[in-house]
Amino acid sequence: MPVRILMVCLGNICRSPLAEGILQSKLPREHFIVDSAGTGNWHVGKQPDSRSIAIAKSKGLDITHQRGRHFNVADFDRYDHIYVMDSSNYSDVLQLAPNAPAKNKVNMILDELFPNENVDVPDPYYGLENGFSNVYNMLDEACTLIATKLLQ
Ligand code: 4NP
Predict the structure, then answer these.
(1) Which tens digits make up the pLDDT trace of 58-74?
(2) CATH fold of 3-150, please?
């Protein structure tokens, strides 16, 4: 059985699509399935934001096939690990968790780099273009650590 990892943000068009693409690129597809979802439903069925597509492309990753989807309670059964981008996503996801094992699957992604500091991946949606580059770099570092752990 492959290990399944879900990346979660608010819109599922900026941060979590990048996290999905980055982590999947660091793991063999036959053993690891990486997906993403949003706690909000505004962008269901949409491609990632063009700025996320562009920064990914500049790093050699194609995320254009991804489509937005809404996080739901069944995701706690479908996934082994759920990484959220910020503390607001964390509380939104935990609120839906049916039990302790489900809660224990959820972690802030930057806890990988800064354990127990609750550092957010800043939402780049309303910001400047370089916000996407900063987000990419943070996620790349975090995903390197996640991939190393998962491959042990
Ligand atoms: P994301 O960014 O959570 O990183 O995908 C956002 C995208 C869209 C919206 C908010 C955040 N929105 O309000 O539509």
Answers:
(1) 999 999 999 999 999 99
(2) Rossmann fold (3.40.50)
